[in-house]
Amino acid sequence: MSGPSLRRRRRRPPRDAEATMSLIAHLTELRNRVAKALLALALGTVAGFLWYDHGLLTFLSAPYCSLPADLRFQGDEGCSLVVLDVFGGVLLRLKIGLIAGAVLSSPFWLWQLWAFITPGLKRNEKRHAITFVAASTTLFALGAVLAYVTLYKGLELLLELAGDEVAFQLTAPDYLGFVISLLVAFGLSFELPLIAVALNLVGVLSHATLAKSRRWIFFLTIVFAAFVTPTQDPFTMLAMALPMVLLFEMAIQVARVVDKRRARREAAEHFHDVPDGEASPLDARPSTLDARHSPLDAVPPPSEDLLPGPPAERSRR
């Protein structure tokens, strides 16, 4: 290889010092990042605790307060959630503040997690990781929004089944715990199609397997939605199942594109279709010699006076 071609060769990027740290240094960095994440969570919890009386509780109780007046014990007089013990209100406010703080501080503690694991990832792994983090966050948010939108209809259907002579006075811990569990259930359920895509990217799950099992996947999705939804009503179950079916179908199509690209890449490589028990068809013919003159041809051979040893040995050489 000539000098100019060596100069044109792309230089390796400098090694990341964080990727070659010792175990003690890694543990120290982990401790520092966990401390920063906990501090951000504490500050977010304080913000959620203060936000509780300035719109957060109203936002969470809005689906219940929007129900017809004959389904609530207060009727037209107002809408209030009941607390049955002295410390119930404080514990409830701390719980809601902690959950709101985790959501509010999620960009910071997710960044701390990302900064800790990213030195050990390759460039393409970093790119895939960023894509999956963005996709998972978006899917979780879409699931939570869909759960909140369908919460009113699910509550109305469940409460109407008790009959016209029954009015409800819900307790705050039970109702708010129910709302949060519904939001989390929808958000996590929307992550399942993304897991299927991840398994396909690493080569564990192929498009052929997904396409062959499409009916079973859709059926199990409906069964899963029936068990996971806290309301257990058909409206909320279908509200979860139908978007999940659509997301799984999108995951199958993504797997089809990924497998086609993988097949084209393997077809460009040598001997990809040779069975393991057969020898590779290597070309045993000698390669042609390079007839071009090298700059070394112009250098004269060393003089015999410069060769080591006595003259007899030089003549034998």
Write a structural description.
The protein is an all-alpha fold. Helices cover 65% and strands 0% of the residues. It has helices spanning 3-8, 23-65, 88-104, 106-117, 123-160, 172-189, 192-201, 207-212, 214-228, 234-268, 311-316. Helix 2 crosses helix 3 (88-104), helix 5 (123-160) runs antiparallel to helix 10 and helix 9 packs antiparallel against helix 10 (234-268). The chain is flat and about 110 Å long.
Biggest β-sheet strands, sense, barrel: none
> pLDDT below 50 for ≥5 consecutive residues: which ranges?
1-8
Distance between the termini: 31 Å
Helical residue percent band: 55-70%
| Percent strand | under 5%
Order of helices and strands: HHHHHHHHHHH
- Number of strand elements: 0
